[in-house]
Amino acid sequence: MGLVIDGKGWKIANDAAVECEAASGFAPVKHLPHFDNLTVIDSVKAGKARSNTYSTALKPLLEAAGIKHKYIETTSPTTIAEFAASLDSTGGSYLFISGDTSIHEFLNGLKDPKHFEGTISVIPAGTGNALANSLELGSVESAIERFFLGKPEKFPIYVATTGDKSLYSLVVISYGFHANLIAQSDTPEYRKLGNERFQVVAKQLLEQPQKYKSKIYLDRSEVPLPNEETSYVLFTTMKMLEPGFTISPEGDCKSLNLVRIDAPDNLMEYMVMAYNGGTHVREKNVDYIKAKNVRLETPKDSVICVDGFILTSDGMVDIDLGMEVDIVV
């Protein structure tokens, strides 16, 4: 058996037919390094209800291409972190059928993330799918095709550190409105509402002016950015945090960008602009700046959000390049 792809779909053909299919515009799948030592990690509870991508699409294609693999299906909230912690090798190839959270859990669960030399691929199955959408892998079909025909490129993963606690960030590090929205919606009562909880909590937060004190130092500067009170502080390499929400229009997944919005009484207007192609970054009270590293001073015990997980600031948060990861694109 063999697998052939034409950019619009796949065909599984017997060996004699592969060359014929290739002649008609299909490209035979050739063996690539990231096919070796492959583990498929399927976060079955991620995102919205979905068909079984692994059994109905991916598994038959892997078998047709002759790619041996290990399959892990999540059975608890700690499955991925426990699997990552069990790895003795720094290499390997890991194909996630998941959202961003699962990849975050994997990277932070590794024994020594800085020395991770493996390869990551993603088939979007989460709610936001920031990584997949920012890499233009928004559909299952395009992501599967990219796995079979793409190649790894190095992408930076930043680490947020406050006191003796650190978290590696795949998607976003935030302070102010976004961080408090995530933190306050993460209770048993609100989790029952699903994604609607964010709208409920946002409405409650916006009943009061959104003002948060901070000092932001970029690229080892000893002088902070002007304006020590703002509404929304977010650092990301991504372009989109969810489909259509273009928080950083120049995001390329390789450069860290600061988005800082000072709009205590009308913050939602800027969120609407983010859904309108990211036009908010043109506004005069929005700072949109590239940075290599950051020092963020906040009031003690302030909430910092790292990919949906919460750190409590000890008054100082450092954001630095933590590692580089090969991601198939």
TrEMBL record:
Keywords: Kinase, Transferase. GO terms for biological process: sphingosine biosynthetic process. The keyword Transferase applies. PROSITE patterns: DAGK (PS50146). SUPFAM superfamilies: NAD kinase/diacylglycerol kinase-like. GO terms for cellular component: cytoplasm; membrane. It holds the Pfam family DAGK_cat. One of its GO terms (molecular function) is lipid kinase activity. This is ATP-NAD kinase-like domain-containing protein. It comes from Yarrowia lipolytica.
